[in-house]
Design brief:
- The protein has 167 residues and is α/β, with parallel strands linked by helices.
- The chain has a domain of 74 residues: Ribosomal Protein L15, Chain: K, domain 2.
- The protein is built from 5 helices and 6 strands.
- The chain is flat.
- The relative contact order is 0.10.
Amino acid sequence: MATTTVETTGLHNLPAPNGARHKKKRLGRGRASGHGKTSGRGHKGQKKTKSGQVRPGFEGGQLPLSRRLPKRGFKNFDFRVDYSPVNLGRLAERFPAGSMIDLEALVGAGLARTTDRIKVLGTGDLPHKLSVKVHAISAGAREKIEAKGGTVELLPKKKTVSEKNAE
């Protein structure tokens, strides 16, 4: 007696629908292929060679749009301090009562990276006492922590260039 096995359809054996798979375009394989000689790049010009691409924003020598438009306002890219926010509700979920929370503890709990500066925000409820050692904290978060008998310690900030020069 012959046994037949029925194979179920799964992701491992789904066929591609018609027209989903294309053959690779074989460039420079003779005139009869339709992509011979110049390989679809046309005649002459900067873009005919392998290194003929221009940088983004280059407009062929014309003054680029980014330089034609007026610049306004103040951009504080060099001196801005970015903080990674952590909400009180998250701290209450991840840490038991009386815990000392610093950067290492936050990294261990998956709430921050080692390179982050941490700011605790007051969103969420805090049912128990916590001690927090962070770079910054909101006024609401500080009130909630201290109301439960916890402590807040701020880590020193890095000095800016102007502060270093003043010394």
